[in-house]
Model the fold of this input.
Amino acid sequence: MANKKESTVEEKLRALYDLQLIDSRVDEIRNIRGELPLEVQDLEDEVHGLKTRLDKLKTDLETINFEITAKKNLIDESKTLIKKYNEQQKNVRNSREFNSLTKEVEFQELEIQLAEKNIKEFKVQIEQKKEVIAQTKDKLTEREGHLKHKKGELDAILAETEKEEKALLKKSEEYEDKIEDRLVQAYKRIRLNVKNGLAVVAVERGASGGSFFTIPPQVQVEIASRKKIITDEHSGRILVDPLLAEEEQEKMQELFAKF
Done:
């Protein structure tokens, strides 16, 4: 903390501009990746959803096949009972017993008809499920192929930039440590609220970098004197003079070349 307090305004401005150059380079790297990480995540979620759907469809098929087996067993049981009742009818003592057994036979015949109707319905459901499974498998294969391609793109970009990004983020932390906390917080707040994350900009052609609003000559002289930290009244950005910016850009280019 002592070093932060002992820094001159010029040293603070240089450190802030260096921090901006480092963070802007990180932004560039992340822009190169663009929407790829989100696309990969969306595809992974979609593939997971399709696999879950396939599992459910297969479970549904197993359940339907179980139901068909149960209905076939019921038919066999009913046929056994019909045979039994028919045999019993040969030995009845009166018409009441005969009629009672006849009703039992009719009931079992109805049970068989209903079970056969259910089996037909289940078989239709099976064909429908199989069709949906085939469509889902095709879509899953297509999505997995797309995911593999996008992952390949992302991995290639990461292989090129990950090492540099990590080194830059470490440097960003180092430069933050050189600056007093209140300035770091102000810098981060400005970065969030301005276009392209540019919180510290050089004066260009008499205006704040990226702005069309002219800075009064007297203010430009104050900026060049590096005696106090001056912000653009329109955008809130911290301003540095062109010479300081050029010097720090050259220094940072040498640093970036090492990564």
